[in-house]
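Data availability (excerpt). The following record was deposited with the supplementary files.
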Amino acid sequence: MHEDPPAPVRTAPGPPLAAASAPPPGPPPGHSATTIERGSFCLARCTCGWSGPARRSRDRARTDAAEHLATS
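Predicted structure:
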């Protein structure tokens, strides 16, 4: 049986290491979202006065808070 030699590997240059290791941006000034539990419900609240809907899923309440910080 005859085998061809492996083809050379071609790679594209990636982003500089400094850009890849930069910390993610923090919340906007004046915004700090947390979750609050009320009975079997959980809701997200922000220091700016925003409040998300009551959710039975804590994970969904945290997602609401993250979406608020991203759009603020």
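Summary of structural features: The CA atoms of residues 17 and 65 lie 30 Å apart.
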